[in-house]
Amino acid sequence: MDFAEGIVAPDQVRLLTDAFDDAWSRVQASKAPWASDDYAKVGRTIIAKYIITNTQSGEFDPRWLADTALLYLTQQKLTSKLLGGTP
To answer: pLDDT tens digit string along 56-81?
Structure first.
């Protein structure tokens, strides 16, 4: 089934969810500052935007998405405020 540009197929949504859940569970397990209540909302948003952006580029490997989203998160300045734009 073909979808319009920017639309993700239902089976791909599951891959994105798996990638996000994997990445976030590893942040929580690490007890990194991003997992604390003060920074979790921003950390989760950074991970989600990163995964979505890479999916739009054609990447659907959940392990790669989770691994690289974590790497990207570690390179971000720790903040409790959402900034404009996408990663």
So the answer is: 888 899 999 999 999 999 999 999 98
Task: Give the helix/strand (H/E) hosting 11.
Answer: helix 10-30
Determine the structural domain holding residue 43 and report its residue range.
10-74
The number of angstroms, rounded, from the C-alpha of 66 to the middle of its chain's C-alpha atoms is 7
Within a domain: 1: no
Within-domain flag for 39: yes
Angle between helices 40-56 and 62-74 (to 10 degrees): 130
In a domain, 3, yes or no: no
**pLDDT at 8 exceeding the cut of 50:** yes
Residue 80 in tokens? 């409790």
Q: Is residue 79 part of a domain?
A: no
Residue 49 has pLDDT above 90, yes or no: yes
Task: Say what the pLDDT of residue 48 is.
Answer: 96
Q: How many domains does the chain have?
A: 1
